[in-house]
What we know:
Structural class: alpha/beta
Number of domains: 1
Oligomer: single chain
CATH superfamily: Flavodoxin domain
Number of strands: 6
Strand content: 5-15%
CATH topology: Rossmann fold
CATH architecture: 3-Layer(aba) Sandwich
Helix content: 25-40%
Distance between the termini: 28 Å
Amino acid sequence: MKTLIVYAHPEPESLNGSLKDLAVATLTGAGHEVRVSDLYAMNWKAAADAADYGPHASKPLNVALDSGRAFEAGALTPDVRAEQEKLLWADTIIFQFPLWWYTMPAILKGWVDRVFTYRFAYGVGEHSATKYGERYGEGTLAGRRALLSVTAGGPERHYTARGINGPIDDLLFPIQHGILYYPGIEVLPPFVLYGIDRITDEDYADAAKAWEQRLLTLESTDPIPFRRQNFGDYEIPSLNLKEGLEPVGRTGFGLHVRG
């Protein structure tokens, strides 16, 4: 595999830092190629603005269209172009981050905002009576797989259907389905460590073994079976799931997962 690790934690000696280092060692030890984007070490600029698009920035600024023009002209800033090139190089992407305020850290969201530009990650394909662009299972990043490796402070029971924080799959749905699956990336089930504020050395040893096992089985792990947009499950152009396709009793985000 050619794996890109996008790592977002400000402390190199954190649990997230250890998991990132273990991923690098495990994958390279198994003969895979690995590149790392350490966003804090890179002093990554998180805010998308007119400076990203140079002469292709309009007034008033239109982030989508301006980013697309700059991308097609090869005029995006060097840091953004470098990250896009890494994504095109990779066949597997691992996102390593702590769950902060129920989502990814701002620096990682800023990486998405700036790197996933129009025409690079979205805004492609035909729009017709039978197709609504290439997205959700199709797109410019199709053929790649991604995995979220996430640490959470609360215990696992807090992230269940009856838990106070809500199901972890629901919390991660906007990232897994809305950011990654949208441009065609297949998403593997996440690796989540809970209660990390109280983790012991023994706990870490067990977590490290589990993480190594996940890493060594990435190629054989089935992705989350999200429904593809243009292949019969959704009405077009309303993009509503067709009646009767959902399992009995299923509601919410789970409607968009097959089986």
